[in-house]
Backbone:
């Protein structure tokens, strides 16, 4: 992938973030009625409402509000929580590691399980393995991740006390404490994506296997593991990588509910509380942060795509 | 593959019949009928009032009077499941309705106008799609306030770019075909062209998309109700029942099973029907 | 194409066979008649044999059967494919893998889709060396560079790291050839190696194949529908029609005295410079789709000379050394071999 392409992708990402910033900003503006009054609640005094209005900068004209908001944003200032009074940036920085850990681990689980199962199914087309994979994948797509998380926790952490049922341990406390808290929620979260990836991988493998270049490779004596590693995997991965990019957002969103089940205080639980309290700055910060993550993941996916597919590299 | 399988399947005149000819989708359809039936008949067939509390009989196991046991307030689980089926059917309809209401006209418009309109709306749709869906839904619920209807409207707004894309794509494809041009030539107005010529042609992809979105909407409803932003007590949806079961999992570890299974089966039904419709309408055969 | 200068002479019938296919029958596992039925021919050491016939005659299937790379749906019913003493139909997958890309190389039509788009051409050429000679990356790469040079690609060192889509069709086909000879084969199967290329490039590729054949002493089985190529390049020709071998002959004889109405009809449909102004004769009708082959001589419905006896199974008749026909009427003397057949 050339520098020009990377720049173009970056520019597209920045455009998306700008659009998201406008939409997020409009969140407050779109609130029916006076947002300050709504936020302050029914028993608020006039002063309370005035304070909130001041804090949200609602007294200035909309354009000025937006510009000021953007200026703060660019300096990394997302405002303060209307309830705890802590800075939103700090709140998010504190909650993000847990959420990003679950999401990242879920992606890893999804890729390993999904691509592995899809590969085997594609290679053994029509066999019982293939049918089993497709059945499990169909089920996996239909199962709510938080329900799976409850079942897993109930089986592996409550009935058998093999793993902790709730909570989170940061990575700096060691790999195992971190992993043991995350493995169940991440598996639950990644299951649907694994199912999606398995389906796509299988289709892609079947498609690639009948391509003439596979026949050519076989005619050169390539077979078995050699053929899979050198000819099949790369070509089959090309469409699958795109799917993975689309799934990143789904996983990040899905972690909201899984966090609740796993009793992990992450972005999800922070966001839910913010919604219940109408803590707009926190919600805005959460949405923006999620957008940044998704844009970054998609950038990484694009780069991977260019690395896998040489046609894109020069084009 | 036999030679016959590679021949293009004939265009289906009766897609529903073709869908039902597959065993898997016939089962799915039967389940859907059962579901809608029990949703409608819930007041008649439910053995108890779903909200009637028997505090002396909390977390009761399976018995003749409570076929699926009771919950943390001693309410009959089976009756609540049956009443929740009403939400399972109607809530996704709200979301899908909103999505179609927003996405269909926008897609038609962008597909017909092309140019700047198309570029801008396309960019906007891409942006919305790239956001984590549940996060956006949360943000919208923050604006509208919690509650089932609001939550499902939020989900519908999140879905609208998907519908927009499908409609826009189909409109572009249909517009390429000559009969649209000839319709323009004989002086059909743009609006008339859209309604009479374009709409019937995008019905098929839209129907497929809507069916699949029903399942996704149900999952979203369950998630939002689970975290308390959707259906509000004392009403029950399968998602909120799961939430209650989660909170009492030490007292009643198996309470998570019945609503979960109801959810999975229903989502599976929508997905199966959606896949079958897609195959049939695009002329593919069952694999 | 110019009038055929009948290059190499008639093959002596005694030439030692490198590959011999006997009674090869392939079908789809249904009750339909075979896609390929009782196909029989030999490729002598160091010689070049053409397999010709219209589209859908079973040429590619025959070549794929030799490599053990038939499509899943296609089943071997019977036959023997003897390559240097090994029966490729019964030898088992290990032996087949040793032979594929080693003693038997292959070049396919459409180099663009036959080369792996995600692998550098250097790696693809080196592949056979790494698999068959267990060479390391570096040694194999050195070999690949030499091979690129050998097939006439300029600036070989830099080109090693190119991807197929960065090359022209002709270059891609040169890469295919380099990869096919990397395993030091004794036999190369070339399935329509020039069909997808421009006419000028076709000539260059054939020239390259001819040089390699001479220098390396390769035997070649060339699948083609281009009779110009056959005349130019091959020693012997095997004519297939609808899964049957209808005629086998040294090239010169096949061109002078074709002994099957189908061969003669094929020859009639080739533009010839000495008859440049006469309209091209084309064979009426098409090859029937597999599954609806008639009994007896499968060419019968399109043949000018069809008679009642053609409905019977046709026996293979030897007319002269190395010249076989399946036409019962020629064998019976009703028809005289020749271009006017
Ligand atoms: N995978 C397959 N499944 C079913 N039938 C097949 C398959 N591959 C080939 N056939 C049939 O076998 C017959 C012979 O095919 P083949 O590819 O050998 O023809 P060919 O002589 O090489 O033709 P061409 O000049 O077009 O390459 C054709 O009728 C074709 O329809
Ligand atoms: Mg062929």
Residues:
């Amino acid at each position: 992938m050339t520098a020009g392409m990377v720049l173009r992708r970056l520019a597209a990402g920045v455009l998306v973030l700008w659009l998201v910033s406008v939409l997020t900003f409009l969140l407050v503006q779109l609130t029916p009625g006076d947002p300050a009054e709504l936020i302050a609640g029914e028993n608020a005094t006039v002063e309370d409402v005035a304070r909130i209005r001041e804090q949200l900068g609602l007294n200035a004209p909309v354009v000025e509000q937006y510009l000021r908001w953007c200026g703060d944003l660019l300096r990394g200032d997302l405002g303060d929580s209307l309830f705890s009074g802590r800075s939103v940036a700090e709140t998010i920085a504190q909650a993000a590691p847990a959420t990003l850990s679950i999401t990242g681990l879920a992606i890893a689980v999804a890729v390993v399980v999904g691509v592995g199962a899809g590969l085997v199914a594609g290679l053994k087309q029509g066999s019982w393995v293939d049918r089993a994979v497709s059945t499990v994948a169909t089920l996996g797509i239909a199962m709510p991740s938080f329900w799976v998380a409850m079942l897993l926790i109930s089986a592996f952490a409550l009935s058998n006390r093999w793993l902790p049922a709730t909570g989170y341990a940061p990575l700096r406390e060691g790999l195992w404490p971190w992993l043991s808290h995350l493995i169940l929620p991440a598996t639950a979260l990644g299951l649907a994506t694994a199912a999606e990836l398995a389906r796509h991988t299988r289709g892609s493998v079947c498609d690639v296997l009948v391509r003439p270049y596979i026949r050519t490779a076989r005619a050169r004596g390539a077979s078995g593991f050699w053929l899979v590693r050198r000819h099949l995997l790369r070509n089959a991965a090309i469409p699958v990588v795109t799917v993975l990019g689309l799934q990143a957002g789904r996983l990040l969103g899905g972690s909201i509910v899984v966090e609740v089940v796993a009793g992990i205080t992450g972005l999800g639980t922070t966001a839910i509380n913010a919604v219940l309290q109408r803590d707009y700055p926190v919600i805005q910060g959460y949405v923006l942060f999620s957008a940044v993550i998704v844009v970054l993941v998609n950038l990484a996916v694009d780069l991977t795509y260019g690395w896998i597919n040489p046609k894109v590299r020069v084009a | 593959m036999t030679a016959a399988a590679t021949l293009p399947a004939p265009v289906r005149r009766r897609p529903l019949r073709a869908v039902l000819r597959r065993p898997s989708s016939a089962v799915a359809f039967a389940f859907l009928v059962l579901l809608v039936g029990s949703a409608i008949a819930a007041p008649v067939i439910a053995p108890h009032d779903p909200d009637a509390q028997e505090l002396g009989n909390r977390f009761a196991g399976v018995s003749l009077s409570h076929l699926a046991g009771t919950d943390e307030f001693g309410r009959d689980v089976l009756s609540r499941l049956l009443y929740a089926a009403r939400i399972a059917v109607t809530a996704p309809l709200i979301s899908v309705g909103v999505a179609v209401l927003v996405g269909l006209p926008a897609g038609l418009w962008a597909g017909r106008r092309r140019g700047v309109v198309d570029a801008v709306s396309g960019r906007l749709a891409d942006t919305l799609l790239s956001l984590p869906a549940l996060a956006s839904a949360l943000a919208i619920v923050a604006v509208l306030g919690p509650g089932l209807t609001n939550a499902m409207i939020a989900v519908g707004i999140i879905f609208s770019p998907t519908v927009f894309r499908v409609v826009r794509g189909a409109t572009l494809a249909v517009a390429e075909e000559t009969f649209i041009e000839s319709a323009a030539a004989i002086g059909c107005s743009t609006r008339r062209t859209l309604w009479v010529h374009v709409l019937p042609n995008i019905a098929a992809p839209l129907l497929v998309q809507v069916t699949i979105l029903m399942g996704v909407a149900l999952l979203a409803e369950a998630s939002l109700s689970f975290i308390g932003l959707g259906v509000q007590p004392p009403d029950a949806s399968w998602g909120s029942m799961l939430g209650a079961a989660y909170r009492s999992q030490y007292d009643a570890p198996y309470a998570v099973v019945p609503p979960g299974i109801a959810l999975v089966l229903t989502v599976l039904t929508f997905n199966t029907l959606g896949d079958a419709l897609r195959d049939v309408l695009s002329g593919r055969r069952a694999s | 194409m110019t009038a055929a200068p009948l290059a190499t002479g008639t093959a002596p019938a005694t030439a030692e066979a490198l590959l011999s296919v006997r009674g090869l029958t392939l079908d789809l596992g249904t009750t339909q008649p075979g896609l390929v039925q009782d196909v029989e021919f030999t490729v002598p050491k160091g010689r070049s044999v053409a397999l010709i016939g219209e589209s859908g005659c079973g040429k590619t299937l025959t070549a794929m059967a030799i490599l053990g790379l038939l499509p899943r749906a296609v089943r071997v019913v019977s036959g023997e494919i003897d390559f240097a003493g090994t029966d490729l139909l019964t030898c088992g997958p290990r032996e087949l893998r040793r032979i594929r890309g080693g003693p038997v190389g292959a070049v396919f039509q459409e180099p663009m889709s036959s080369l792996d788009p995600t692998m550098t051409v250097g790696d693809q050429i080196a592949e056979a060396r790494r698999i068959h000679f267990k060479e390391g990356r570096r040694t194999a790469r050195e070999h690949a560079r030499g091979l690129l040079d050998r097939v006439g690609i300029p600036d070989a060192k830099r080109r090693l790291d190119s991807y197929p889509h960065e090359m022209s069709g002709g270059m891609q086909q040169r890469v295919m050839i380099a990869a096919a000879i990397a395993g030091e084969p004794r036999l190369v199967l070339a399935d329509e190696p020039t069909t997808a290329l421009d006419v000028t490039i076709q000539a260059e590729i054939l020239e390259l194949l001819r040089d390699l054949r001479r220098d390396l002493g390769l035997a070649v089985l060339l699948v083609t529908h281009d009779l110009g190529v056959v005349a130019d390049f091959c020693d012997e020709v095997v004519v297939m029609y609808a899964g049957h071998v209808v005629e086998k002959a040294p090239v010169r004889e096949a061109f002078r005295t074709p002994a099957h109405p189908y061969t003669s009809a094929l020859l009639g449909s080739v533009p010839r410079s000495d008859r440049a102004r006469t309209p091209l004769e084309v064979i009426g009708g098409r090859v029937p789709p597999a599954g609806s082959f008639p009994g007896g001589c499968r060419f019968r419905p399109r043949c000018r000379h069809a008679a009642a006896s053609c409905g019977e199974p046709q026996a293979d008749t030897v007319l002269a050394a190395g010249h076989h026909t399946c036409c019962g009427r020629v064998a019976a003397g009703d028809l005289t071999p020749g271009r006017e057949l």
Notes: Confidence is low (pLDDT under 50) at residues 1-11 of chain B.
